[in-house]
Amino acid sequence: MSFFQSGRASTGSRAIILLHWPSDKRRRGRTSRAGFAPHAGSRKGMRPRSLKPVKSGGCRPSYYMILTVTILAFCLPSPGSTQQCTNGFDLDRQSGRCLDVDECRTIPEACRGDMMCVNQNGGYLCIPRTNPVYRGPYSNPYSNSYSGPYPAAAPPLPAPNYPTISRPPICRFGFQMDEGNQCVDVDECATDSHQCNPTQICINTEGGYTCSCTDGYWLLEGQCLDIDECRYGYCQQLCANVPGSYSCTCNPGFTLNEDGRSCQDVNECATENPCVQTCVNTYGSFICRCDPGYELEEDGVRCSDMDECSFSEFLCQHECVNQPGTYFCSCPTGYILLEDGRSCQDINECEHRNHTCTLTQTCYNLQGGFKCIDPIRCEEPYIQISDNRCLCASENPGCRDQPFTILFRDMDVVSGRSVPADIFQMQATTRYPGAYYIFQIKSGNEGREFYMRQTGPISATLVMTRPIKGPRDIQLDLEMITVNTVINFRGSSVIRLRIHVSQYPF
After folding, report:
1. Does pLDDT of 146 surpass 90?
2. CATH 2.10.25.10, the chain: domain bounds
3. Which of 196, 310, 351, 363 measures 20 to 30 Å from 171, CA to CA?
4. Three-state SS for 328?
5. What is the pLDDT of the chain when averaged over all its residues?
6. pTM for the full model?
7. Basic residues composition bias: which ranges (predicted)?
8. Distance CA 326, CA 293 (A)
9. Structure letter (DSSP) for residue 355
10. Distance CA 335, CA 370 (A)
11. 378 Cβ neighbours under 8 A, 6+ residues apart
């Protein structure tokens, strides 16, 4: 090893050392171009020095590298003076000793480029990262084996007098020394030596810590702010935001699923069936329905009987009988209910021999009943010529002003029959030349409920002009007067009409 520059050691002085790398194949790492070596102590912004190759007989070229080494010098305190440390050391006031300063940690970018900083007592070295310093065996440049030119010999440096230095081990930032002189992680979160805000949580990491926010919060400008999850549609139906969280609820008729967000319809009909009769489930609710003949009450749950008979008086022909959930029609005595369930039909008691008439009486069927008619009796001067006719003979002086014949007839009319109504027709059996006929009601029309309307030369119709309420029996004498001017004849015949008005209008 040869020195290119040397001098007296002083505080903070430096010396340039030339290192020699053998150029054999065993040398590891990359090399620079032949004959040049980079300056080991160069920093960013400075060009590395270069040396020309050294030629020697048949020897191979050698490579050199310049390293900057800080030469240490210490000022020892003299009696009565204040103790001070040289550059690269700091005074420890407790022990009174000078402790080395780690420039590799305290000086930013102490070594630049592809150089690595190596701390030394009182200084530091910058060496290539890819070419560690190789220290070959010592060779005397003045021996006979070296035939090349030699650099000028530098005077020997005085041996430095280093003080005894006690250097404690140093741990990286975020670590501390334990009792076994091992660097262990410092839990800043446990020791409350972190700088997290009160709204943040401290999470310890290897050699440090991080400040984070709990679930439901997000970090904004160093503060943990609550996240309003309801704004992002987290819930299917109802959402309530709370600090750091949220809660989902469902509308009535729904239940919250296990995911805590979606809602499912509740089948009220399957779980509790609140309806009295029929329950129909709907989405989110239910409706109650009633059986035919019932109607839903105002509470929407119970059913009450529907009085169909109150809807209309024409629902049944005679009488409507309401029953729970339904109704039926009934007919009075003397009628039967037809297949339509509402109409009544008369029972012909005379035809079915379901009457109480005697053998001498005649059964006459009426609407809803029957009449037992006694045999006719012809009063003087009339004589009976048939079971329904009486005759007054012309040769009998008592018949001069009397109708020639009296014919007995029966008919029935329903109560309250609509009017006007043609109910009976009267007609002459023989028409004589030169004769005309007059029709009139001779007796029985005191209430003026009827009148005769002549419909032809020999016929007329009995018209009912007022409705008659039954049961009632009316007897009318309908007279037909025959007038013949040719033979100067005037005569009459009478039909004694017995009208039986039934009790019911059907």
Report:
1. no
2. 268-305, 308-346
3. 196
4. strand
5. 80
6. 0.48
7. 41-52
8. 5
9. S
10. 12
11. 384, 390, 391, 406
CATH topology of domain 308-346: Laminin (2.10.25)
Q: How many residues does the chain have?
A: 506
Residue carrying the six token digits 């029929």: 278
The answer to whether 176 touches 183, Cβ cutoff 8 Å, is: yes
Give me Rg for the CA atoms of the chain: 72
List residues bridging with 363 in a β-sheet. Answer: 372
Read off the pLDDT of residues 429-479 as tens digits, 9 standing for 90 and up. Answer: 888 888 999 999 999 999 999 999 999 999 999 999 999 999 999 999 999
The pLDDT of 126-151, averaged and rounded, is 53
Of the listed ranges 133-147, 168-182, 424-438, the least confidently predicted one is 133-147
The span from the CA of 247 to the CA of 333, in Å, is 75
What pLDDT, in 10s, does the model give residues 12-64? 333 333 333 333 433 333 333 333 333 333 333 333 333 333 333 343 333 33
CB count in 10 Å sphere of residue 138: 6
Amino acid at 113: G
CA angle 38, 43, 45 (to 5 degrees): 105
262-270 mean pLDDT: 93
Q: What is the DSSP string of 385-433?
A: EETTEEE--TTSGGGTTS-SEEEEEEEEE-TT--SSEEEEEEE-S---T
Torsion from C-alpha of 464, 465, 471, 473, nearest 10 degrees: -50
* Structure-derived torsion over alpha carbons of residues 429, 430, 435, 441, reported in degrees to the nearest 10: -10
- Indicate if the alpha-carbon torsion angle 31, 35, 40, 42 is positive or negative: negative
**Cβ–Cβ contacts within 10 Å for residue 321, how many?**
11
Structure tokens at 65: 């590298």
How far apart are alpha carbons 4 and 35 in whole angstroms?
17
Which amino acid does the sequence have at 223?
A: Q
Assess contact for 461 and 455: CB atoms under 8 A: yes
- 501 φ/ψ angles, rounded to the nearest 5 degrees: -90, 120
Residue 143 banded pLDDT, cuts 50, 70, 90:
very low
CATH number of 383-501: 2.60.40.60
Amino acid identity of 55?
K
**Terminal-to-terminal C-alpha distance of the chain:** 151
For CA atoms 406, 407, 408, 410, give the dihedral sign. negative
How confident is the model over 85-112, as a mean pLDDT?
86
Q: Which residue has the tokens 């109409």?
A: 343
Q: Which of 117, 136, 116, 118 is nearest to 128 (CA)?
A: 116
Question: What is the Cα–Cα distance from 55 to 26, expressed in whole angstroms?
Answer: 21
